[in-house]
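Data card: per-record layout.
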Amino acid sequence: MRLGLLNNCKKMVQIGVIGAGAGGLCAARHILATGNMKPIVWEQSERVGGTWVYNPDVGIDKHGLPIHSSMYKSLKTNLPKEVMAFPDFPFADSEKSFIHHKEVLRYLEDYTEYFKIAEHIKFGHHVESVSPVIQAEGESPSWKVTVTDLASKTTSTTTCEGLIVCNGFY
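The structure for this 170-residue chain is written out next.
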C-alpha cells in the first residue's frame, strides 16, 4: 500500500516503522507531517541513531540478542555532512565536512527532538514477526506486527495500515 493512498483517508491511520535510525526517523517525521497518519516506531535499542550508535561490545546483549554495530571509536563519515543532511534539517554550522560519528548521532537526536518523534518510539522493543492481514477485495491491506518489550518480557501485536521497514539492512 502506498502512503499517498493512505494520506487521502479521513480517519487517523497508524503506520508502523521498524527501526529508529536515520531512515526510521525520517519516515516517522514525514508520517507525522501528513496530519492524518500516526507512526508507531519500534526500536530494539534504548536510543535513536541506529548504526550511528557506537557500542564497543560484541556478541550477545543483556537480552540475549545479537549486538549489531558497524561503528568504531574513531570513525568519521566518508560522505560530507552536506550530502548526508535531510533537506529540511541541515547539520550545525562547522568548517568540517567529514565529521565524527558522535556528531551524526547528535544530529539524529536533534532531528528527533525538533520534529517531536520520540513520543512515537517504543524503545527496547524487539520485532518478532510481521504478517499481512488478508482483507476483503477492495480494502486496503494491513499488517500485524508482533513485538516483545525487552524490559517486561511481554509480547503484544499491533495492526497497522502501513509498514515501513528501516532496519538498516541495505
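Known properties of this structure: Residues 74 and 100 are 7 Å apart (CA to CA). Helices lie at 3-6, 22-33, 81-84, 101-114.

See the next section for split statistics.
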